[in-house]
Amino acid sequence: MTLKDLSSVVDAEHGFIIVGAEWCKLCKEIQPILDDLMELTQELPSNYIAWEEINVDLNSVNYPFLQCIIYYPEIIEIFQGTEIRRYGADEIDQLKQYIYWLRDNYQ
């Protein structure tokens, strides 16, 4: 099992860790939206917005913060190295609006 390096997400001004599982129906349903958001921010510097995806089936023992997740998917937002928010599938529209705002207000 390979441990993912999350330093790019933690070191970015705005980092997002997408936590899901292959068996999770909601994860599969919102994946196209998340893919679009990742593509939307692809042209921005990686130190401004960074993304990482973690499959809990493969990595749950390696990341202690995954132990407290009850529902999947969960998107963890990290701002300048500190976790500030978690989004669930029911908040994907809020996340989407926020990502568009970040992109539009990048200087």
Please describe what this structure looks like:
It is built from four helices and four strands. By secondary structure, it is an alpha+beta fold. The chain starts with 6 loop residues before the first helix and ends with a helix. The chain has a single domain, classed as 3-Layer(aba) Sandwich (Glutaredoxin), CATH 3.40.30. It is globular and about 40 Å long.
Mean pLDDT, to the nearest integer, reads 87
Order of helices and strands: HEHEHEEH
CATH topology: Glutaredoxin
Low-pLDDT runs: none
How far from one another are the termini?
39 Å
Sketch the major β-sheet.
Answer: 4 strands, mixed
How would the blueprint of this fold be written?
Layout: H1 7-11, E1 14-20, H2 25-40, E2 49-55, H3 56-59, E3 74-79, E4 82-88, H4 92-104
Parallel strand pairs: 1-2
Antiparallel strand pairs: 1-3, 3-4
